[in-house]
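User: I'm writing a short methods note and want a consistent example. For Adenylate kinase, I'll paste the sequence; you return only the structure tokens, no commentary, since I'll be parsing the reply automatically.
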Amino acid sequence: MNLLIMGLPGAGKGTQAAKIVERFGVAHISTGDMFRAAMANQTEMGKLAKSYIDKGELVPDEVTNGIVKERLAQTDIAEKGFLLDGYPRTIEQAYALDQTLAELNITLDGVINIEVNPDSLLERLSGRIIHKVTGETFHKVFNPPAGDYNEDDYYQREDDKPETVKRRLDVNIAQGEPILAHYREKNLVHDIQGNQEIDSVFADVEKVISSLK
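Assistant:
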């Protein structure tokens, strides 16, 4: 079973990915893990990636694509299948993945897309506040401090501020839409409603994956 998982930040993609790996025994391939492994093993692409990272530069697509290809060519993939998480991030990477899979004679069985309304995600991601004195973390909606608290006693990290979160979501939506459209043309996308309890989301994911086997 060879799968790809997609979803906006905060949609619960990481949680569902972990459950899929545990339930179906596929190899979890995330870009971060791949980069670390390639650099640790000093593969050709790993050394190339390190040369950019050490200079504080972005790793070019051709290197990222090469690292993915190295990983997909390993023997455990043929035995277990994979769940690709965090790649492709751009439509160009999606085209490169098509080519890689064709060269390795691997078929992509499905794309699991965890759908959550961006407005809900904005509330979910921008509600985090931190107590200035204790450093304790709360959420304005889902885990507020007890009683009538004074907002002046709390602060938000730049990453958690609504305007920053909205920018991040907008970028992810703009990048993700062409990728989803590309896979929809291939009839590979399975939309899962992510605004449910975690176990309910996974029950829907499980149904889809079981139907693909």
